């Protein structure tokens, strides 16, 4: 058994064969009307010495949740979110009597900007903290130059507002995790599973003592009582691998799952069943759109797909909740990720 605390970043190749893509993360939908930031919501205790801090991304509740784990002698953060929302995280920590200087570990499920850009700033504030990340993502945490160049082409002057500064994580603070590793942190023991499908650098963490699995985006997005939906941005989407990753999480038989977007769920079988069904439906819709494009551009097909998803949601959910889903996901980019998946297989 490998203990992640002894598995150092020095062994990671400087330039792994990974396409950082147009950022590799979900392009957020811009709300029809920009909301003024509401008063911060109190952190939510979820039991087992864990709390969720809602980052109120773009003024919306329940889009990005940072999980705070109490340790002996400090705290760990699962997916600390964008550096642009570090103030919201700091305020949430203060409400539970904690500060960024108390952070002893940052556990990244993957390195997409909505999950990871705050990690470097937190590492700077707490030099003793260690940042746990899959080996494919680790070089980009140490040197985010390529990833940022791609992201800036997409977001332009929205980059700072959405994501903030991506401060590099010093190599000595990085720790590499992979499938079947165990992370021992201040009285907690977390198993690691490698879960590709959404991203080539995606992992999940499972704590047997509390029956909790932190599943990142392999668990999709699920907001405010709505359905679980996939998030499928370029460049790494692989439907078969994602389905395998769902099976990997289910093999743990967790009592509860915690997706970053958003909350805690005990109905793992129905959650992943609905998610897998939606993933297959989306995949087939995109394959059909490529086969029968009728001269439409990718831009037009992206828009058609987004309208199809939003129309389906609006039949079940309020307009406000539908907009929150769109903000959390970025449906046009999900078309692009699945189109890339099919084109790599000679379809379209």
What layout of secondary structure does this protein have?
Elements: E1 44-47, E2 50-54, E3 65-71, E4 74-78, H1 86-95, E5 103-107, H2 113-116, H3 119-125, E6 130-134, H4 138-142, H5 145-155, H6 159-162, E7 174-177, E8 182-185, E9 188-194, E10 203-207, E11 212-221, H7 239-252, E12 256-261, H8 268-291, H9 298-314, H10 319-329, H11 331-343
Parallel strand pairs: 4-5, 5-6, 6-7, 11-12
Antiparallel strand pairs: 1-2, 2-3, 3-4, 8-9, 9-10, 10-11
How does this model look, in words?
This protein has 348 residues and is α/β, with parallel strands linked by helices. The chain has a single domain (4-283), classed as 4-Layer Sandwich (Metallo-beta-lactamase, Chain A), CATH 3.60.15. It contains eleven helices and twelve strands. The strands form two sheets. Strands 1-2-3-4-5-6-7 form a seven-stranded mixed sheet. The chain has a five-stranded mixed sheet with strand order 8-9-10-11-12. β10 (203-207) and β11 form a beta hairpin.
